[in-house]
């Protein structure tokens, strides 16, 4: 059904890129998932392979090393990646793309030319450090301080739950440059995490799911970075820059969540057709059929909503409330879908050797990060 539906935004070029992403996913993502889960990080080589195939920064202009496509090119890549039901590379790539967009839309020409070409080929993996032990949803509570001394910022503080922390080659740090200036005292500062004395990465955090994601604490102990590393070249723009990029981030997360719902449905249809109980396949039991019919409907609605969002992104008209609706709806739908799919798998659905069990644990965080869904509901309500 969905296989034959062609959204208005999709061109032959998008389809071709989707084919390439599908091959990449089958050859380089799916076979490595288990190993990455054990080692708590994705291989750096895989990032470089993705870069060589043009599968990173698909919607960044060619002048900065990207593919010169639009958000539809990004979307087809996420749709193929989520077919592997793998969250390490897929989630890390989303953070990488979000970081690239901060640089693209807020950076100076020099910053764009310095970082984006390396990010496009997978040499510099992007990470962004907003969250701290004492401040997550409420970023005004950030305590990390970047103090200007001569031609340098001296950064002190700590961050936590930071994705891509072991693999990163470029980091955006959210820091207070003026603790007395309220939201105008916040800045985003670019740094090279491999070459900044005083900076260190803590242990990989032990999470409920997404074990292949290198999520860590970061420590800044008198880290010196040149003042020209402030994103956009002007201090105090951090809060506005964050607000400006949030719709993009939420569009990406909505897409990923709805892609995983599609995958969970496909896995469960296959399983219930294959396994029998009481003399017939589970799929022939009325409850299974009704549940799967409901899940398929949810998946179809999610796909159409996401296609609308993709169209808005391509047109440059996506607003924060609509993007938030998509992130909230798609991540909650995913939670519900994987929970019901686990039930249809029975005991097998609780065994980590089955992808559906891993998805159940991996998917939970999608309602928490990228803006907790309650915070996003508040944003949506403000627009009513
Ligand atoms: C696996 C993982 C990866 C992550 N990656 C990154 C990363 O790369 N970079 C980064 O900076 N951060 C990252 N985070 C952090 C993530 O963005 C935060 O966890 C999230 O923003 C919530 O912040 P918090 O954990 O401090 O929760 P809190 O802000 O303490 O909120 C806790 C709960 O309170 C409720 N709540 C909070 N505020 C409100 C409100 N105004 N109205 C109603 N309810 C509210 C919500 O239910 C929320 O879930 C990651 C987190 C995880 C788990």
Automatic annotation (TrEMBL):
Cofactor: FAD
InterPro entries linked: Acyl-CoA_DH_CS (IPR006089), Acyl-CoA_Oxase/DH_mid-dom (IPR006091), Acyl-CoA_Oxase/DH_mid-dom_sf (IPR046373), AcylCo_DH-like_C (IPR036250), AcylCo_DH/oxidase_C (IPR009075), AcylCoA_DH/ox_N (IPR013786), AcylCoA_DH/ox_N_sf (IPR037069), AcylCoA_DH/oxidase_NM_dom_sf (IPR009100)
Taxonomy, superkingdom: Bacteria
Any single Pfam family the record assigns to this protein: Acyl-CoA_dh_M
SUPFAM superfamilies: Acyl-CoA dehydrogenase C-terminal domain-like, Acyl-CoA dehydrogenase NM domain-like
Residue span, Acyl-CoA dehydrogenase/oxidase C-terminal domain: 236-383
Domain Acyl-CoA oxidase/dehydrogenase middle: 127-223
Domain Acyl-CoA dehydrogenase/oxidase N-terminal: 11-123
Keyword Flavoprotein included in the entry's annotation: yes
Keyword Kinase found: no
Keyword entries, A-Z: FAD, Flavoprotein
UniProt record similarity statement: Belongs to the acyl-CoA dehydrogenase family.
Name of the protein this chain belongs to: Acyl-CoA dehydrogenase
Protein source organism: Duganella aceris
């Amino acid at each position: 059904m969905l296989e034959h539906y062609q959204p208005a935004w999709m061109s032959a070029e998008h389809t071709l890129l989707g084919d390439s992403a599908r091959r990449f996913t089958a050859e380089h993502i799916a076979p490595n998932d288990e190993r990455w889960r054990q080692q708590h990080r994705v291989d750096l080589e895989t990032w470089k392979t993705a870069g060589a195939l043009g599968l990173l920064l698909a919607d960044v202009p060619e002048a900065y090393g990207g593919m010169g496509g639009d958000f539809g090119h990004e979307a087809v890549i996420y749709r193929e990646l989520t077919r592997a039901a793998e969250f390490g590379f897929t989630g890390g790539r989303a953070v990488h793309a979000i970081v690239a967009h901060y640089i693209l839309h807020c950076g100076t020409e020099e910053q764009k030319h310095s970082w984006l070409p390396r990010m496009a080929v997978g040499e510099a993996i992007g990470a962004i450090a907003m969250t701290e032990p004492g401040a997550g949803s409420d970023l005004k509570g950030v305590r990390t301080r970047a103090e200007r001394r001569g031609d340098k910022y001296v950064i002190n503080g700590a961050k936590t739950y930071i994705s891509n922390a072991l693999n990163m080659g470029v980091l955006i740090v959210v820091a207070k440059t003026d603790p007395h200036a309220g939201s105008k005292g916040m800045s985003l500062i670019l740094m090279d995490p491999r070459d900044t004395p005083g900076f260190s990465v803590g242990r990989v955090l032990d999470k409920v799911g997404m074990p292949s994601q290198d999520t860590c604490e970061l420590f800044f102990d008198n880290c010196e970075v040149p003042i020209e590393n402030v994103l956009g070249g002007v201090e105090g723009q951090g809060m506005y820059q964050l607000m400006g990029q949030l719709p993009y981030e939420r569009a990406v997360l909505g897409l990923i969540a709805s892609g995983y719902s599609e995958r969970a449905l496909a896995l469960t249809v296959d399983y219930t057709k294959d396994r029998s109980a009481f003399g017939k396949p589970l799929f022939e039991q009325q409850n299974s059929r009704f549940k799967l019919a409901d899940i398929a409907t949810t998946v179809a609605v999610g796909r159409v909503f996401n296609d609308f969002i993709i169209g808005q992104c391509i047109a440059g008209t996506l607003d924060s409330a609509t993007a938030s609706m998509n992130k909230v709806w798609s991540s909650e739908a995913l939670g519900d879908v994987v929970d019901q799919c686990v039930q249809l798998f029975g005991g097998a659905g609780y065994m980590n050797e089955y992808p559906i069990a891993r998805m159940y644990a991996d998917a939970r965080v999608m309602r928490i990060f990228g803006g907790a869904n309650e915070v996003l509901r508040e944003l949506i309500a403000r627009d009513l």
